[in-house]
Write a structure and sequence with these properties.
Strand 10 and strand 11 form a beta hairpin. The strands form four sheets. A five-stranded mixed β-sheet has the order 1-2-8-5-3. Strands 4-12-9 form a three-stranded antiparallel β-sheet. Helix 7 packs across helix 8, helix 8 crosses helix 10 and helix 14 packs parallel to helix 18. It is of the alpha+beta class. Bound molecules: protoporphyrin IX containing FE (HEM). Protoporphyrin IX containing FE (HEM) binds next to helix 13, helix 14 and helix 18.
Length: 456
């Protein structure tokens, strides 16, 4: 996945590659990772990127450049029209099914015993998780029932409507302060200055994390969520190092919370819960990772999408200015249109049939929310933003079923407050330069967005 701006790499940390000792697949991955790191556009290489004219059998939507170059739309439109449950035989991630409309995605997510999320079966992203108990980081998004139920239950009280009410004031205060501090008439990067700052601050509050160190959360989360780095034999160990650094930091906070009276922050809630309070170190780190990665680039990219949308669809901005009661629906519509996580994945636990396709035990099924949120059977002109869209809430960006995003309300709160506070100040960001997108088939978002603030 990933790749938001990343920390400096120390060349000493990079392991020397022995390409000759690798299997062809390992070599392909290693070379691929190098090219990606050096910024090479693989669309010019031997395997061209898919377009609407590519024969179905050759379409591979796992290629991250499709998203970095923003060329995924016609390819998914073709898949939805001609083959909504599509088999890709050959990809860097091995063969996989692509589910591109709402019906099969909802069907699969509603049958978690047949379609597993468990890390021991491959996990929840297109990249297979390791099933090596000594290095895996088990987290409940990658677990099946009953383990999933028990662990999810311990964090869900942090996201109830009453908790959201409690957090509202804090979120509003920080959002207001940040908006008031933005430079006027000067170019700045919306992603770093607004989206990252607000989301990271929110996570720091949620965890009771030391405020002055909050950017560590951004750095760790970017590394942890970086599926490309995870596949890279050179960057992989650097990434692991970052994860251990995060683990050590959180372990010491955890000890403090365990030794103190229960408090309202998430870490304290977890430390004092039965199911999470006694879990082993790896599982603990896994769930912390889940919460910081889950709440980080997703909300960040929604906030960036809002600024982008106001520029792409200026009439919608005006509509909102005239009808402030559209704010909640506008938030849903932005989340639908952006779909900050392009996919989740499941693994078939038995031979089965899915709307006429024969699924074999062990097959990988990738559910492309990004495409399902453009499903022509559900949304008219899904590629457009319409803050008055009657069924914006039918979007699948938060998933569906037992794994549906536990932090959805918090994400909605943050985006709603941002829209409201910008409206109060009559602020409109105007994009002034080239936008850079994340090179990933998982995190769907923006690396850079230069803007100037205007008032209306
Ligand atoms: C717009 C923002 C967000 C989006 C688009 C998003 C998306 C998702 C998706 C697609 C899933 C998996 C659903 C599935 O497998 O069916 C998920 C799960 C999860 N998300 Fe979010 N998320 C967002 C914000 C957050 C926030 C703010 C947090 C917490 C701080 C969070 C924490 C989690 C956790 C813990 C899970 C695992 C739930 C489970 O397995 O039961 N997310 N999210």
């Amino acid at each position: 996945m990933a790749t938001q701006p990343r920390a400096e790499i120390n060349p000493e940390d990079l392991k020397k590659l022995d390409l000759d000792a690798m299997t062809p697949e390992e070599r392909y991955r290693a070379e691929y990772a190098k090219e990606w790191r050096d910024g090479l556009d693989r669309s010019t290489l031997e395997k061209p990127l898919a377009t609407a004219d590519t024969p179905l059998a050759e379409i591979d939507v796992s290629r991250p450049e499709l998203y970095a170059l923003d060329r995924w739309q016609p390819v998914f439109e073709k898949l939805r029209r001609e083959d909504p449950i599509h088999w890709c035989e050959d990809s860097v991630y091995g063969p996989f099914w692509s589910l591109t409309t709402q019906k099969p995605i909802i069907h699969v997510e509603a049958l978690p015993d047949i379609y597993s999320s468990d890390w021991r079966n491959g996990g929840f992203t297109i990249l297979n998780s390791t099933n090596d108990e000594t290095i895996a980081l088990p987290m409940f998004i990658g677990m099946d029932r009953p383990e999933h139920t028990a662990q999810r239950r311990t964090v869900s009280p942090a996201f109830t409507p009453s908790e959201m009410k409690r957090l509202d004031e804090d979120v509003r205060k920080r959002t207001s302060e940040l908006l008031d501090s933005l430079p006027r008439g000067e170019e700045f990067d919306w992603v770093d200055t607004v989206s990252i700052e607000l989301t990271t601050g929110m996570l720091a509050i949620l965890f009771g994390f030391p405020w002055e160190d909050r950017r560590k959360l951004t750095e760790w989360s970017d590394w942890m969520g970086d599926v490309n780095a995870a596949m890279d034999p050179e960057l992989g160990p650097v990434r692991m190092q970052k994860m251990y650094e995060a683990a050590a930091y959180f372990q010491s906070l955890w000890k403090q919370r365990k030794a103190s009276e229960p408090g309202p922050d998430l870490l304290s809630m977890m430390a004092h819960s039965d199911a999470l309070g006694e879990m082993d170190d790896r599982n603990f780190l896994g769930n912390i990772t889940l919460l910081i990665v889950g709440g980080n680039d997703t909300t960040r990219n929604t906030m960036s999408a809002y600024a982008y949308a106001l520029n792409q669809f200026p009439e919608q901005g005006r509509k909102l200015e005239e009808n402030p009661e559209l704010v909640a629906n506008a938030g849903q519509e932005i989340i639908r249109w952006q779909t900050p996580l392009a996919h989740m994945r499941r693994t078939a636990m038995e031979d089965t049939e899915l709307f006429g396709k024969q699924i074999k035990k062990g097959d990988k099924l990738v559910m492309w929310y990004l495409s399902a949120n453009r499903d022509e059977e559900v949304f008219d002109d899904g590629h457009l933003i319409d803050f008055e869209r009657g069924n914006a809430r039918r979007q699948l960006a938060f998933g569906y079923g037992i794994h549906r995003c536990v932090g959805a309300r918090l994400a909605e709160l943050q985006i709603r407050v941002l829209i409201e506070e910008m409206a109060k100040r009559r602020l409109r960001p105007e994009i002034t330069g080239e936008i850079e997108r994340v090179n990933s088939n998982f995190v769907h978002g923006y690396k850079k967005m230069p803007v100037k603030l205007a008032s209306y």
